[in-house]
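Hi R.,

Here's the chain you asked about this morning:
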Amino acid sequence: MARQMKGVYENPPKSGIWWILYYVEGKRHREKVGRRSDAVALYQRRKTDARMGIKMPEIRPRRAVLFEEIAADALVYSKEHKASYRGDRATVVKILPVFGKTPINEITPQTIKAYLDTRDDLKKTTINRYRGTLSMIFQEAIRNGKATANPARLVRLYKEENGRVRFISYEEEATIRAIIRERCPIHEPELTLALETGMRLGELYSLEWDRVDLERRQLILLRTKNGTARVVILTEAAVSALKELWERRSSTSPHVCLTRYGEPMISPRAWFELVMQEAIKKNPSLQDVTWHIFRHTYISRLVMAGVDLRTVQELAGHKDIKMTVRYAHLAPAHKLAAVDRLAEYRREQEKAKCQETTRLTFAAA
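And the predicted structure, written out as tokens:
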């Protein structure tokens, strides 16, 4: 534990925000510094200047940084580096009326939790996404030197109900695919890529050709949900879909997914909602299918095919294997095979014991 120094203190306690307090000719001076080491160094310098008669600097009150300012900065970062920019922007629009005009030093873990507790109109997963966006905003403010602490990081995540993972069957896929072929066949490769790679919507529709390597059957995603790059391994079906999209590539746009007019396709909503409306008429069980379900389907099919969870984690791009474990119950055949090894082991042991007994009997004779 660091030794306490007179005139250097942390406020609020355990916030990581350090101040110095000193007196010159009976006049009280207080300065907000930041890190403790910087506060100690500045305090010693101020005391030395005072002894030497050097005039103290005029300490002007710092301009209060409002939440709306750091939120705008964070959206600039998100747009440049994250595939989830549209989601971040939508969340910021919802929370700006609550925190927008509030100075960031007045936003505490308690105020954030109090706000999230009032959002009982949202699912726990959505509330956790709000918390994640708030944390991202403060983290970016720290990098920009506008904040010294991240209060959202201290807010506990809500327990999510992850008992059921929705994925589509091959029959349901066939229904959706048949409608796409009839209504908008140029978009079928996009469906294939979603199902065969597990890419998120933002990752797929921000993909550019210089990140695709068909010879090595892989592509690099620079803009992912968490802001880190990852490599996606391509199946043969995914390679075929990309080759089809390559034939329709544009000389003016580097994007892989294009509209029928050759412009970058930002979102599949325009055609996908129409397709699903027709699909639901044919199969009402498809009513809860969203584009993100295709990512669940990719991961679920890997697990059901017997791929080990660590490999699935790498292929899906999960930072935490806890996300992958949600799909573990989908591998009954894999688990049954493991349990059957117990019976096989028992038979081997009984056979070995029987052979040993026979050997001893002949030896005795």
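The chain has a mean pLDDT of 87.

Let me know if you need anything else.
M.
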